[in-house]
From TrEMBL:
InterPro entries, per database record: DUF2577
Descriptive protein name: DUF2577 domain-containing protein
Biological source species: Metasolibacillus meyeri
Length: 125
């Protein structure tokens, strides 16, 4: 009876593994234009198989600021160039530089079936 149970377990595990359920995959960026990620010696993922999250892209964000610039003096000695500062207030756009570069190590989620990969984040060194 134990052999039958073990055989059934093996068959079930093989069937589940064959489905290529979602799994974590690691890779290295080898090209950014077009985007290519090397997973192992044999597998290089091409741009059409990759989806990017905001964590690995350059993107703009709006932020509210309310501070004063640092005091700076001009150069001619004229009173108009005396040391001064300015208010810096309001809603401002900023560019966040998160884009991938060659050599970045990335963590990806492989979708069921193994055809699409979602790049979740890059390794911090």
């Amino acid at each position: 009876m134990t052999d039958i149970i073990q055989t059934i377990r093996t068959i079930v595990l093989d069937a589940v593994n064959a489905q290529k359920l979602t799994t974590i995959v690691y890779g290295t960026v080898i090209s950014t234009s077009p985007l290519k990620i090397q997973v192992d010696q044999k597998l290089v993922l091409e741009q059409e198989h990759l989806k990017l999250t905001r964590a690995v892209r350059d993107y703009e964000v709006e932020m509210t600021v309310d501070h004063v610039t640092e005091s700076r003096a001009g150069g001619s000695g004229d009173a108009a160039y005396a040391s001064h500062d300015h208010e810096y207030k309001g809603r401002k756009k900023f560019l966040v530089h998160n884009g991938l570069v060659v050599g970045d190590r990335v963590t990806m989620l492989r979708a069921q079936g193994g055809q699409q990969y979602l790049i979740l984040d890059k390794e911090v060194v």
